[in-house]
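Predicting holo structure, uridine-diphosphate-N-acetylglucosamine bound.
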Amino acid sequence: MNNIAAIVLAAGKGTRMKSDMVKVMHPLGGLPMVSWPVMAAREAGASSIVLVTGHQSEKVRDLFAGRADLRFAAQDEQLGTGHAVACALPALLGFSGMAFILCGDVPLISTATLKAMAKQHRSRHAVITVLTADFAQPTGYGRIVKDGDGFIRRIVEEKDATDAERLITEINSGIYCVESDFLTVAIPNLKNDNAQKEYYLTDIIKEAAGLGLLCQAFPVADPAEIMGINDRVQLAEAGQLLRGRINRSLMLSGTTLIDPQTTYIDWGVRIGRDTVIHPNVHISGGTEIGRHCKVEPSVVIKGCRIGDGVTIKTGSVMEDAVVRDDVAIGPMAHLRPGTELKAHVKIGNFVETKKCVMGEGSKASHLTYLGDAAIGTNVNIGCGTITCNYDGVKKHRTVIEDDVFVGSDVQLVAPVTVGRNSLIAAGTTVTKDIPPDSLAIARTPQVNKEGWKLKKRD
Ligand code: UD1
Ligand code: CA
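Done. Tokens:
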């Protein structure tokens, strides 16, 4: 049963993308486009996958580097889909069984459809099964030509079709199940005597049918799955459909999305039940969010691990941060990489953190920069506090121990340690370590010159 291979065609440049980047590398739902059909093939049981690459093949190969189930085949010149499969065959030497053929630029194909197609392929002992669809506007697609019994005789490309054939509305999706033994025999026989002077993969059907082998159609249930991406309009449409799938599965598993149309969650993000996500939120990079959290509008979260009961208020941006339970963040907070907020921490508006660990119950409620800092439990960081972590050459650490009260407008010139239970007076510039239980104050004493204003006016 598990003897399944897949060939994914991804050598084309994608001229209509008008891009410096090869088409199949354009991101879609948080993954390069080509990752989607590769993933679908693997989940449908393909244990050996050959990726045919041509344009920018290095980039495509790097994406899958280290993947044992994947091999690459180079197609340096794109001489047609049949030629692309010919390039893949050496990588399948010794394999005998069913192979899926997929396109790198048809990313919405689902695992369920591939499985259903494979099942029908096997149960009917077909040699080729073509995934087809019925399109009222079939322009541009290869048309399925059938015999009286409903089997496929051949596929004719638009450019080679007669007027009568162009009226056929059943089209070829470009996705197939094929017996590999037949491929090995048929592919070398392909000719390029057609309108486009290409080696058409679709011509193997004519060959199989001529030998009396069974070629059947498998109509796709949802035509959106076979949508090919040729330009950025289609890229956006496919992105919307993929997001729809991701959002739907999150909602069905217990996450509330106030407005799924404007919620942008990438593949691989996990969110717990009873968490509420407001509109215009972007979550990516394999972020994990726990239960009973609230993510307010216009929040951006990338690569974070967030516990339960966390509130993230409007306009906050978070990247590679770890946030424990019952933390409150924002509005307009910026958590940068290396931030770790322990339980019950409060980060208020216009607070920026970087490589900063804050212990349980500590607070930085307003207008603060905390970088390269280790902050203990129950520390209060006053409004306008700044860790001066950079001397122009190197970064230095600030350590603030448990139960410290940092007054407003304090600068901590690192490296510096503030001992536990100390108090730093407002306006202090801390330049040396503070022992535990102390009061540190460093500010020019205030002078009141009485009547000064009146004298000046005289
Ligand atoms: C192909 C089918 C057509 C079908 C359509 C569905 C053939 C002859 N025709 O046409 O019946 O309706 O797909 O979209 O197969 N590729 C390579 N190397 C090549 C040529 C193509 O890797 O030399 C890749 C492309 O990058 C793409 C896929 O194969 O991922 C399909 O190629 P494309 O040029 O889009 O095929 P069509 O001419 O549209
Ligand atoms: Ca195409």
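Residues 396 and 448 are 38 Å apart (CA to CA).
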